[in-house]
Each structure stands twice: as structure tokens, then as C-alpha cells.
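Summary for the lay section of the report: proteins are chains of building blocks that fold into shapes. Here we show the chain for Trehalose-6-phosphate synthase and then a coded description of the shape we predicted for it.
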Amino acid sequence: MPNRRSAGTPPSGAADGAGPFDFVVVANRLPVDQVESSDGGTEWRASPGGLVSALAPIMRQSDGVWIGWSGSPGPAPEPFDSEGMHLIGVELAPEEVRDYYEGFSNATLWPLYHDVIAAPEFHRSWWEAYVAVNRRFADTAAANAAKNATVWVHDYQLQLVPGMLRQTRADLRIGFFNHIPFPGYEIFAQLPWRRQVVEGLLGADLIGFQRRADATNFLRASRRAAGLSTRGSEVNAADGRRVRAAAFPISIDSAGFAEVAAQPHVQARSKEIREALGNPKQVLLGVDRLDYTKGILHRLKAYGEILDDGELAPPDTVLVLVASPSRERVEQYRMLRDEVEVTVGRINGDHGSVGQPPIHYLHQSYPKEEMAALYLAADVMLVTSLRDGMNLVAKEYVASRQDETGALVLSEFTGAADELTSAFQINPHDIEGLKQTILRASTANQAELRRRMRAMRRRVFEHDVAHWARTFLRTLEDSADHRHRRREPGPGHTRPSPESEQH
Ligand code: G6P
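The coded shape description reads as follows.
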């Protein structure tokens, strides 16, 4: 039964260290952003982002608590309720934002886990901050989780939390989901703290990944970095538990998204967008966080060459490039922004005329309605990631195309490519192939597009985010129950030895 006490209530079971909540989500970010309100003050609003759209509906249903960082350095806000969710903030000091968030999370792990597209940096001071901040998240979760509660830890920023929680709260059912890829061992092995990371993750009962290949990579890392044996999809952890690693491809609230796209004002807005673009025959669209993993420069190279070749040209064809601001204080992101903006400027300079640029570049974030209107306005959606855990934009495009029109060009290096096999799949490194596929997608006949879109829509609607969460949580329940049964005291029962200290 969900517990109805609100966030911030002093833990009821202080004696045994337990808190009030039966379901606890732990993620680097709270699912809300602080924005300016109409009266000049500030208010919390649900943030866009993949993880938020994925978990918000489940949080509301289960009356659980979400533990995360507000996104600003300095003291955490007092626990509060927003969008039907209980939220507890974790404080990050300015140096921790620099060393744990911008540093170890986004300049060490992010590039390492995305096949070293950018060079990862390894700094011992960043690792120390990562350990300290993971400890804070683990302590906050431990203080708020009821006895035998389910704790679901998310993503690469918090890989040590399952191990830390297991040490202090062996009663908990702990799940971990990695939203980004898990790299092959040859790459992962570069990490000086690879053993500690593997052992941290193994504090969970179940470790979820986007693709089967990610789970396989993790199983291999457990053998090689931690010297543990594996059997099928299970790791034999050092304390005698069996930990399962498996694929649970994340999705979107497909019906909810389709509903937004079907609203008359959103449909009207999509017509307005096409008009503002000069009513071209063909609208191409790219939507990403401005991140080097997304292959934005590869996309621009292919499009620029198509224009050079004269195979497509404005005003008949335009590309709308939405690149939302991201991690702007990290050097690699600043450099990428400069490169993208120079490239866009060059292509527009070479191929544009007054009022008719071939690229409409927007370095901004938009609410869901505007995104849906953009998807509806686009004939061809371009997803060209060099490596991507899932790519929910691809799924949102599919969910919004109720009339089964539109073409999805999709990189085979996304998690989504495993599921959306009817997309026009591309290798973004193969610029010639990318150009040919963009042209093929933009000239395909309606029957072919419909056949492809129908198959993709079936997948996206049958495997939505509710299905993802249900499947993960059910599997977690089975794995943890199995552990509890095995641990029941009986003749000759001994407690497993605690895991070694993370450092
Ligand atoms: C990816 C990660 C998330 C992260 C998001 C935005 O989707 O998997 O964990 O929250 O990017 O990045 P940010 O650094 O702004 O949180």
C-alpha cells in the first residue's frame, strides 16, 4: 500500500533507520525546473527531458517520493510537492557541481560510455566528489525509505548508490536503470575506478539497460573488472546475492503524446510553422540536446552536400534544427556549439537568399505542445546519433504521426534502432549513405511511408513507458523476493559479508 505521509515528514521509524516511503526514486535531477512566474517570483514546473516524461506518471500513481538535485548550486529547497509528486532536494555545493556533475558525470563517464566520441578526462578529485555526492544521495534515500521499500536508482551519475544503500539498508529492494549505453569492456577498462563502479551497481537486485548489448557489456565488466562469475544474465555478487542484468528499453507516454499532437491548437500551430517556413514542399527536422553524441555535425555535412549537389534546395526544402542548450559550462559542449553555429552560418550563407535560409536553427527548449507541432510539421525526421542510449525524440515523432505519414531517418547506433526496425536506418559516419537515405526518405511514396510508420507506431504504442516501468518493477520484485527467500534464517544460515568500502 502506498504511504500517504508527505515528503519532509520526519522519518517514523527512526529507531530502525527507516523513513516513510514505500517507493523511492533516486535520480540526479528532480523532475522540475525553477522558472519565473507571471507575478515576478519563481515557481517549479515539470521539466522536459526523457527521464521525467518517463517516470512522472508512475510517481503520481504510486504516491512515492523523488530524490534529486534542483539543478542550482547551493542549498537544496525544502521538501515540497509539485505536479502530484513528493520531491526531496539534495544539495550540491558549487565545487560539487563542477567536480561531480560537470566533471566526473559529464566529462568522464558521459564520453566514456558513449564510445569515447569525445575524450574522457580522468581526475582523482572528480572521483572523490562523485563518491561524496553518491553517498549523500544514498543517505537521503536511506532516511526516507520505509522498511522493505522499493528504491529505484537512475543513471550514470549515481552508480555507487545501490552499493552504498545495500550496506546500510539490506532490507531494501533496490533497482538500478542505466539510461545511457554501457560500453564494451575495452573502453570501460580505461576507467581507473572500474571495479568500484561495477561493485556499486551490484548493490542492486536488478540492473536495467536499454539494449541487450549494454547488459552483455556489463556482465563482461563484472567478470573482468570485479573478478566475479556470471551465469546467463546473472552475476554472482561477492556477498552471495545473484544480481540480474537485463534490457528494458525505455519509452514515452505514447497515448499522452499522441493526445497532445491531436489537439486542434497544436495542429493549427503546425500549419502556422509550415507557413512561417514559406510553405516548403519538404520540411526536414532535427531535435536534440546540443550534444556531441547526437551527430549534429554529420547531419549538417550530409545536408550541406545535398544542397551543394543541387538535389534538394530552398525554398522547396528547409531544415529546422532545434538544438536545446545543454551542459553549457562543459568545454566540449561549448566547442560543439561554436562548430554547429559556424557550420549553420556557412550553409545558410552559401545557399540562402533573403527570407529563404535552408536551415532554421533554434538554440532553445520548447514545451511539449510546440514539440508536437514541430513533429507534425516535419516530413522527414533526422536522428543521426553517433551513440545514444535510446533516443526518445524518435519515438515522440512516431507517436505524433497519427495519419501514418512522415519518414523517420534513424541512426543504427541508437537504442531505438533495435525496436524501430522499419525506420530508414543509417550509419551517420557514412555520409554518402546518409545523403542517399535522406533523399530516399524524402522521395518515398506514401504507401511505403505508411507501411513503415504503421509498424513503428504499433511498437511505440504497445511498448510505452508504463509497460517499461511495469516490466522493470515486476522483474525487480521477482529478483528481490528470490533474494529474501534465500536469506531467510534456517539451520546453518550465515549473513553474507558486507561489500568492501567504496573509495
Ligand atoms: C540524458 C541523461 C539524463 C540527463 C539528461 C539531461 O538523457 O540520461 O540523466 O538528465 O541527459 O542532461 P542534464 O545534464 O542536463 O541532466
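Put simply, here is one thing we learned. The chain has two domains: 21-250+470-483, 254-462.
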